[in-house]
Structure to design on (394 residues):
């Protein structure tokens, strides 16, 4: 069930924690999960989201936060880059989707890449035919840029050995599957991807990380004055958003949820109701506690009910992907303005990252401009020189 965007068992809840004063870079609205990859997993299945969550943990080091790696590098390319693009049907083999230099990508290979993205990031082709057509064209563009990056890494002598990739994978399994390879293998089967797909993606991530570091090592460092100016110009963003601690009961049907909600509003002990009725085994022994959550962490219907209730109130029933929910607001921490001193270091880090990304985009634009790309007509993007779009936004 996914009324929370960070999955945890059937309830899809986040681990209970103390209230966070700031996010990863200290700024409201700058979440890292979706931004790491440029992929928005809202609307995908719970299994796909679980996979996307553990997969994002493979991104190495501090670069996981807001720095463009494989998918972002592929899906969000600098504007204004002049790709040498041809729409030449007769020069490509009949089963080809595109060509980058001498390398031909067949339609089958393109589809396989989309399936891997679906398994790792929750990227799913839309059902609407028109949107599906645009999706396919954007996917072709994404693969073209990915090939350019792979070729550039090879030219620059940037390599990742198999042992290094497997060591990284072993760390992922230890941290996300308690070291249980069978659980990892089961996840791969559920998502229809192979271990080699994961290893290839890890290698690509590591290569792009090193290439990014090499290209951006000369980026100018932000000063305290730069951070102060940014703070003053964006003071409305400098807040720690309201957080609420919520307990939740998950039920199979609306009727059952209405009955439990009536009991809860009538004064029944909420923890006792959780123990008796919830189908979420992961929070049953915790009184249904989901920990501290922000409104943007929740599915819209559940968020509206949870953040519209007063402290101590019972809310629901609210339907989510995994069932019907009855919740209770146990604590509230109001939104607070953050002082410059609280966010100074985070702002400097953000400005440093912005400078790095700008330098990267300039470099990448030159590489794309020098590339020789051909698309089959059915995969040619509407605007080949524009940045590829996020494949999940349709």
């Amino acid at each position: 069930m996914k009324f929370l965007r960070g999955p945890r068992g059937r309830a899809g809840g986040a681990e209970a924690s103390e209230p966070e004063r700031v996010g990863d870079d200290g700024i409201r609205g700058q979440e890292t999960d979706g931004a790491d990859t440029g992929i928005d997993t809202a609307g995908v299945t719970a299994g796909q989201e679980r996979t996307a969550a553990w997969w994002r943990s493979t991104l190495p080091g501090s670069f996981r936060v807001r720095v463009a790696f494989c998918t972002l590098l592929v899906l969000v390319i600098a504007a204004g880059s002049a790709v040498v693009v041809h729409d030449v049907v007769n020069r490509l083999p009949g089963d080809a989707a595109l060509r980058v230099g001498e390398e031909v990508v067949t339609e089958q290979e393109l589809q396989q890449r989309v399936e891997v993205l679906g398994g790792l990031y929750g990227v799913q082709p839309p059902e609407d035919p028109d949107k599906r057509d645009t999706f396919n064209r954007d996917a072709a563009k994404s693969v073209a840029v990915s090939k350019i990056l792979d070729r550039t890494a090879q030219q620059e002598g940037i390599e990742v050995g198999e042992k290094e990739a497997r060591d990284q994978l072993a760390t992922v399994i230890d941290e996300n599957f308690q070291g249980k390879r069978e659980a990892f293998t089961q996840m791969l089967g559920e998502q229809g991807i192979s271990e080699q797909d994961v290893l290839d993606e890890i290698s690509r991530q590591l290569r792009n990380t090193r290439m990014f570091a090499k290209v951006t090592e000369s980026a100018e460092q932000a000063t305290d004055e730069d951070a102060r100016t940014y703070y003053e110009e964006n003071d409305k963003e400098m807040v720690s958003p309201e957080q609420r601690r919520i307990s939740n009961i998950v039920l199979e049907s609306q009727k059952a949820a209405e009955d439990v909600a009536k009991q809860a509003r009538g004064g029944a002990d909420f923890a006792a109701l959780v123990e008796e009725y919830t189908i979420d085994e992961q929070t049953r022994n915790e009184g249904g506690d989901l920990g501290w959550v922000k409104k943007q962490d929740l599915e819209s219907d559940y968020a509206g009910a949870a953040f519209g209730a007063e402290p101590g109130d019972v809310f629901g029933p609210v339907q989510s992907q995994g069932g019907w929910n009855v919740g209770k607001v146990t604590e509230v921490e109001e939104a607070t303005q953050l002082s410059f001193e609280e966010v100074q270091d985070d702002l400097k880090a953000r400005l440093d990252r912005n400078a790095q990304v700008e330098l990267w985009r300039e470099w990448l634009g030159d590489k794309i401009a020098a590339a020789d790309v051909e698309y089959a007509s059915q995969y040619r993007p509407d605007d080949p020189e524009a940045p590829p779009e996020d494949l999940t936004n349709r």
Observations:
- The domain at 242-334 is CATH 3.10.50.40 (Chitinase A; domain 3).
- The chain has 13 helices and ten strands.
